[in-house]
Predict the structure.
Amino acid sequence: MSTTGTATSAPATAFEIAPVQLGDRRILHPGRWRWLRAMVWLVLVFFLTSVAFGLPLQWAVDHLPPDDEPLQLLGRVGACVAALCCYALAVRLGEGRRARELALRPAPVGLLSGALLGLLMMTALMGVLAATHAYDVTIVGSAPAGTGAGLALQAAVTEELWMRALLFRLIWRAFGPLPALVVVAVVFGALHLANPGANALAGATVTMAGVMFCALYALTGRLWVPIGVHAAWNFTQGYLFGAAVSGGDLGGSVAVSTVRAGAPTWLTGGAFGPEASAVALALITAVTVMAWMQVRRLARLTQDVPGPELRAGSENLPL
């Protein structure tokens, strides 16, 4: 992909025909300095969505009873919706297109299928860790889910919006898909290295998770599946199993998972939690490979589509 944004007739790669809408109008129109315009646009929209998320969240913190979990959950959901709406409006005004990555009609299926995948992945991970005597999982009974659900959703929506719809998409627009994938994976992993208990294995696992989320976004062209996987992974880990989530705590839980004495950190993930386990790295890598294989399959299926449909970010690419 040319950094000047001019169209070429070169054969499309698997990345280039994935249904990601990169944008090619207004501020992202083809021509001189498109890469710079894309980077400036990235910073601007990140700032706008951060403010749109932060203001209602701060209002909720200041005005809602801290011990009222349903209201706190509603406040977090409202802040997430505000950020998504701000992004959609910015794309409409600045890029002259509808934000198809946030299309509402496919949202329920995308969120549900992503949530199911995240639930299955974390359940499989904890099952392996319990079977290998790395963790003891004790059921403690029902617990309010509002805090855990709110924190899991907040992390999923904001990180997928900023990492995938902004950083990944606009670096792809500016410099091409492979630089975008590398940058986003490294940034996503690096941001988690400041969390309690982070180590090299935790960084590698989160980095691979970043690649996985990019694959799911490239495959579907929507944010819903990555958001669903991300939220369900965190919620299942923190609320259903009561384990640490990237070194943090989601509050009350249905079960409590504790590391067995003498179990190696490379297997348990240590204070960072099960997602820093070598088993988690293997599991996420397997799902990532399968997802990118599906992207390549999509590429092969659309190789005979002529002209503009093969260009990255084309509005005409059938989804």
The CA atoms of residues 16 and 312 lie 5 Å apart. The beta strands are 135-139, 255-259. Confidence is low (pLDDT under 50) at residues 1-18, 304-319. The longest helix spans residues 34-63.
